[in-house]
Amino acid sequence: xxxxxxxxxxxxxxxxxxxxxxVGCSGGEVQKGSSSSQAYRSDSMAIAYAATKRVRSNYxxxxxxxxxxxxxRALVDTILYSPDSLKLFSIVLEQIPETESTxxxxxxxxxxxxxxxxxxxxxxxxxxxxxxPLSPINFGDREELSKVMRSSYFGESFRxxxxxxxxxxxxxxxxxxxxxxxxxxxxxxxxxxxxxxxDGFYYFQTVRDPxxxxxxxxxxxxxxxxxYPDSIRKMYGACGE
Length: 241
Hints:
Layout: E1 30-32, H1 37-58, E2 73-81, E3 87-97, E4 107-117, E5 126-130, H2 142-154, E6 162-167, E7 170-175, H3 185-188, H4 230-233
Parallel strand pairs: 1-2
Antiparallel strand pairs: 2-3, 3-4, 4-5, 6-7
């Protein structure tokens, strides 16, 4: 089991399912795929903007007028691209103001992933939040959370982790098969499997895995709904078209 440091808050429960992923991964920013450094910077800004808007809207315990809520940030840790730059996978760390810390920490952090798709390289992304198979929360240390996320998603053991899908009317387990640093992830990995839950939709475009006793299709997931400011839109040739 990967060692974990969480914020020392007695009333909170850390929901971190590590799924036996035990390989190491170095820290620091990662860019992989065919996109340029400028594209990486543009995409980082767009993902951070969209993910920040989403996480702020999800923290309803902080009223909209509360300055605490407006201090919430989504920080892009990693972006990986498909060879054609029409798909991306990103690790995002949510930075939440600490209001109940017992040791003087200013923030705690949640680990998320974002998957993006587009039809042309000159347009902005349609971005989807994804929590499977790993979405740890309540970490007191950003770097430690980054290491856990990277070692989990980019390690060799990722291929053995399984998700639930529909097959011939039954719920069965299917391996994720390839981690996002493998070129086959973009064509054969479970995240990119169409019809795993809903005909015509990728696995990551559904809200949740099916469960025994619930044979209804998983719900279709909504992408990030965001209107980008001009500072981001102008970095793409056809953002929003």
